[in-house]
Write a structure and sequence with these properties.
alpha+beta, 9 helices, four-stranded parallel sheet, DcsG_Biosynth_Enzyme, ATP-grasp domain-containing protein, Dna Ligase, domain 1
């Protein structure tokens, strides 16, 4: 009997979202196929990782606030069993500076500058406020600086992420908070289509498209989240042939850049800009919510793919 661990974060320790939302239907599908499967908290010191034939990362969502501990767990688990997606890919994907590597390799994304020092960030915000660069957009019709997005390169669930005017003191304050983490600040111009809720998440299992989700806009202009908390409003949507091809291109380029094999699963977040076409927002390669309750057929595909790799 194949023994599979579905890796989550203990909901009692991390209550920002339902860490079992995908795990429940996936475990049921694995059980129907004769596997012995259970959900396990990555940080539980009592887990015998060597007792699994395979562990599959699904919702280790507090990794961003415990990155060193999570990295140590990856190394330990990898020495005892097979981990998917593979730890080398996870480490590469944890820091969003991977986006710069993909852009260099030909994948278009949102213009981004990276800042490890406050002086660099202050200069970039000032340039954005003048509409002269620094990853900020041009001024609006009234001459007011357009919004920018600030976020950490290591983060999840829109933590420490803000949609702010670059001349707003809250922008530099958020940047200082990220830097004090310690962390690196990503600075990007606002993408109007993204603020309008037109982001799409395309899901792939073994490199093959399964479904697409639109979750609506999350960031509130002026800082914070719409509605005051992280709330996705996921809906199944169609993905065009061009969007599917773009997602597949992202995975193929990732393989070229990293030298690693096709991941078991992926979520490719995209938006289509009126001025720049399809843009990559993120390639989530180790902890994306698949919204399996909305796509029950995908649950079966996912379970089959897991057992094929066990």
């Amino acid at each position: 009997m194949t023994k599979v661990g579905i890796v989550i974060t203990d909901p009692q320790r991390f209550d920002a979202a339902d860490t079992m939302r995908d795990a429940v239907p996936l475990l049921a599908a694995l059980h129907r196929r004769g596997a012995e499967a259970r959900a396990v908290d990555w940080a539980d010191p009592e887990v015998d990782w060597a007792g699994f034939d395979l562990v599959v990362l699904r919702s280790p969502w507090d990794y961003a606030v415990r990155p060193r501990e999570f990295d140590a767990w990856l190394e330990r688990a990898d020495s005892l069993t097979r981990v998917l997606n593979e730890p080398a890919l996870v480490r590469w994907n944890m820091d969003k500076r991977y986006l710069a590597q993909l852009e260099t390799a030909g994948i278009p994304g949102v213009p981004t500058s990276y800042h490890e020092e406050e002086s660099s960030l202050v200069d970039a915000l000032a340039a954005a406020a003048r509409g002269t660069g620094g990853s900020g957009g041009p001024a609006d019709g009234a001459g007011t600086p357009a919004h920018v997005v600030l976020k950490p390169t290591v983060g999840a669930g829109a933590r420490l992420t803000g949609l702010l005017r670059p001349d707003d003191p809250a922008a530099s304050a958020l940047g200082r908070q990220i830097l004090a983490g310690p962390g690196t600040v990503m600075l990007q111009p606002e993408v109007p289509e993204l603020s309008a809720g037109r982001e799409k998440a395309l899901y792939l299992v073994d490199g093959r498209f399964t479904h697409a989700i639109a979750k609506g806009a999350l960031l509130a202009p002026g800082g914070g989240l719409r509605g005051g908390s992280y709330r996705e409003t996921p809906q199944l949507v169609e993905a065009s042939a061009a969007e599917r091809a773009f997602a597949e291109q992202v995975l193929a380029t990732t393989a070229t850049v990293t030298g690693l094999a096709m991941p078991l699963y992926a979520r490719i977040d995209i938006v289509e800009s009126a001025t720049d076409g399809l843009l990559l927002l993120e390639a989530e390669l180790f902890e994306p919510l698949f919204h399996l309750p909305l796509a029950p057929a995908v649950t079966e595909v996912f379970a089959e793919a897991i057992l094929a790799r066990a």
